[in-house]
Specification:
8 helices, Rossmann fold, globular, alpha/beta, about 10% strand
Amino acid sequence: MPRGLFITLEGLDGSGKTTQIKRLSTWMERRGLSPVVTRQPGGTATGDRIRALILDSTSTPIAPLAEMALMFADRAQAIAEVIEPALAAGQFVLCDRFTDSTEAYQGGGRELGSAAVLELHRLLCGNLQPDLTLLLLPSLEGSLQRARRRNDRQLAHDGTDENRFEQEQEAFFRRVWQKYREIAAREPRRVVLIEGNLSIDEVHEQIVEAVSERLVTAGHKA
């Protein structure tokens, strides 16, 4: 059985990843591709507990290295429990965030550097690489505003607090944004950069074009 295709979506909170991964999943399902959709942190019972700890704004302050270690603990579990079994079974996997997020947020935002992130990825994740990464980079200011509004609505709706990163200063997010651009420049064959304040439909069109091309390259019908 041919191995499945691993597609990740990246970007700042508020960049539209959640909306676009839902639309991409629907587009693929209509073509009989039935993707496995997951997210990081989270996506497993262990990962959901790590997510609650990392994203809750009331959590005890977490040291940057501990934060990075928790991200990789979540990722290693997701690979073992969800991602690798699905790919081995020939399924398509759509993942909301992967190691690029850790390189951007902890490597860039927390200023831990890319080398440590990439080495941990090699050691703990078997250096598993996405076949395609869709990087959404609308304006920094717009992303932050949308993320904060969304998290406030979620907190009011069901009490889920995922505001911890949104409490950071703008300089933190500028470092994250810049690191994402560095990743895109470093790996242009894997990363498709979709930037600017585009409409939801415009972003979806670019995503479908990129995914269709990668499906054909991998020998699948688009």
